[in-house]
Design goal:
Blueprint: E1 4-6, H1 17-30, E2 36-38, H2 39-50, E3 64-71, H3 77-86, E4 91-99, H4 102-105, H5 107-120, H6 124-129
Length: 131
């Protein structure tokens, strides 16, 4: 027997609400089990986050790019800022005045920022040698 936990997205009434709600409606049509989390998966995920030997609890040794969405149904804008501030490595905060699912609706913009961050933090000799 497998146990599952229902995890529905929180209600949202902010910027681009209709667009964000439609995203979840589309996703549920494609994958009706999307918000049913297997208890074994949840346990493994929690181990990654808070386990005794979790690498996530350590300090990053590579540059970090944090996307801060200002109209997020899951996290406050302040949460992203506090998260960003905890890093002591090279870092960049990219602010998106939009919803949690901006990675889907604004994929070109986000991919541009990821590529720029990668290039800004890569040895040019290595990049051009592999092109």
């Amino acid at each position: 027997m497998t146990f599952t936990v229902m995890m529905n997205p929180p209600k949202y009434h902010g910027k681009n609400k209709e667009q964000d709600d439609r995203f979840y409606e589309m996703a549920l049509l494609e994958n009706p089990q999307m918000f049913k989390a297997n208890i074994n998966w949840l346990a493994a995920f929690m181990e990654i986050l808070i386990g005794k030997n979790s690498y996530i609890k350590g300090e990053s040794k590579c540059p970090v790019l944090v996307f801060q969405t200002l109209s997020d149904r899951y996290f406050s804008a302040n949460y992203f800022k506090r998260y960003y501030d905890r890093f002591t490595c090279d870092k960049k905060l990219y602010v998106i005045d939009d919803i949690h699912n901006s990675y889907y609706f604004r994929a070109d913009e986000i991919c541009d920022q990821v590529a720029k961050c990668f290039l800004d933090n890569t040895n040019e000799a290595i990049v051009y040698a592999k092109i």
